Amino acid sequence: MKERPVVIGNRARRQVAFVGPYGVGKTTAVRSLSDLPVVSTEVRTIGVRGAAQPDTKSSTTVGIDYGQWRGPEGVVGLYGTPGQERFDTIRNQAVSASTSLVLLVFGHIDNALDEADRWLERLDAGELGIKLTVAVTRLQDAADRDLDDFRDVLDRYDTDIALESADPRNRDDIARVVMSALRLPALRRPKQPTTTLHVVREEVG
Ligand SMILES: Nc1nc2c(ncn2[C@@H]2O[C@H](COP(=O)(O)OP(=O)(O)OP(=O)(O)O)[C@@H](O)[C@H]2O)c(=O)[nH]1
Ligand SMILES: [Mg+2]
Predict the structure, then answer these.
(1) Which of 9, 129, 154, 168 could connect to 25 by a Cys-Cys bridge, CB 3.0–4.6 Å?
(2) How far is the CA of 62 from the centre of ligand 1 (A)?
(3) Number of Cβ atoms within 10 Å of the Cβ of 88
């Protein structure tokens, strides 16, 4: 029998939430960077109407993913939010005033710039400024588009919004993006109680 600790509660002084469209890689990003087993709320899906790309995923997030990363400046709480619009309320609950946001967007789809614009508007990006970092995925698969095109869209909201290209499957990429999101000075908050659950897994074989 093996025990794996899963932290419930909030020991992190800094928090980063990944937001963005269905299937862009929010859960993947949390899993890539988290030092702990990620607490997830995935359910099986047979596809989502209006998804930005052909659906190859077999599950979708309906609650909040939670992971933790010990970065150079301390422990960071990582939240993956649901991409589907019908879970907007859950996403909003995960994002407190002190949470930095990473908006993941598709770089390679035809309407990539329009979709990025739509998300920026939904997040009220003009009010977020340095609390927001935009990470463009799959840009290498875009025939005729680069980061400058996204920069133009962001600048309509706030020139302080950081912009990166990243692959959510790549730990170094996500560490860089999270560091960018954390360029805000840390808010000092009282230490909160933490509970550690020990998830017991039976060894097979
Ligand atoms: N080719 C490619 N695939 C990627 C990239 N980033 C993520 N993926 C894949 O795309 C899928 C993303 O799935 P999730 O991480 O579940 O996406 P999500 O944003 O959490 O989706 P919802 O929670 O359902 O909104 C996974 O199969 C990843 O392996 C990328 O940069 N390039
Ligand atoms: Mg997810």
Answers:
(1) 168
(2) 15
(3) 12
202 domain residue, yes or no: no
Q: Which of 83, 13, 77 lies closest to 48 in space, CA to CA?
A: 83
Does residue 52 belong to any structural domain of this protein?
Answer: yes
Q: Name the closest-CA residue to atom 31, ligand 1.
A: 167
**Residue 196 within a domain:** no
Output the domain CATH number for residue 92.
Answer: 3.40.50.300
Ligand 1: list residues with CB < 6 Å. Answer: 22-28, 57, 60-61, 80, 82-83, 137-138, 167-169
Q: Specify the number of domains making up the chain.
A: 1
Rounded CA separation 184/178 (Å): 11
Q: What is the pTM of this model?
A: 0.84
Distance from C-alpha of 159 to C-alpha of 152, rounded to nearest angstrom: 9
Number of neighbouring beta carbons within 10 Å of residue 10: 16
**Distance in Å from the first CA to the final CA of the chain:** 11
Ligand 1 pocket: which of 18, 28, 53, 108 to mutate (most atoms within 8 A of CB): 28
Which residue range is the domain that position 170 belongs to?
2-187
* Domain presence at residue 195: no
How many whole angstroms from 205 Cα to the centroid of ligand 2? 31
Closest Cα partner for 50 from 25, 22, 82?
22
